[in-house]
Design brief:
alpha+beta, about 150 residues, two-stranded antiparallel sheet
Length: about 150
């Protein structure tokens, strides 16, 4: 399971046809890709570093010349990003769960997990660079029109 978040900027949809018609889409796309790279780099720096797997699986995809999405591809991304409700954990391939509390080994047939609070790494990273999205669109369009 991966966690995907698509960013949409108000006002761009009305101008999509115009941008596609005058060919600044490539310039806009390049500028937006730079913003997407910044978002990913920031998310990777604030992601948990226990194994590094989560951070290594944060990426972006360009969906079109004026659209990108940030993807957290780790199987547990949704739980890490959004949190989880309290739930029961039972063994799947064993007769009991084994864990350690305060140096003591515990065996249990089931445990009640209290749930987790989501860390919102992707959303926080997007908020950090959100102001750069309209600037990237404007710069990319302007440069494309000025330098045909």
């Amino acid at each position: 399971m991966s966690f995907e978040l698509t960013v949409e900027v108000e006002g761009l949809e009305e101008n999509r046809e115009f941008f596609n018609r005058i060919e600044p889409a490539e310039g806009v796309s390049k500028k937006l890709e730079i913003v997407a790279q910044k978002i990913v780099a920031f998310a990777q720096t604030i992601a948990p570093k226990v194994t590094g797997f989560y951070a290594a699986n944060i990426s972006y995809r360009m969906l079109g010349p004026m659209e990108f999405e940030i993807v957290a591809g780790a199987p547990y991304s949704t739980i890490l990003e959004e949190g989880s409700r309290p739930h029961i954990i039972v063994p799947v391939q064993a007769r009991a769960l084994r864990f350690e509390i305060g140096g003591e080994i515990i065996f249990a047939k089931r445990v009640m997990h209290p749930g987790t609070i989501g860390q919102g790494i992707i959303a926080m990273s997007i908020r950090q660079f959100y102001h750069e999205i309209p600037e990237a669109v404007e710069e990319g369009a302007t440069e494309s029109v000025e330098d045909p």
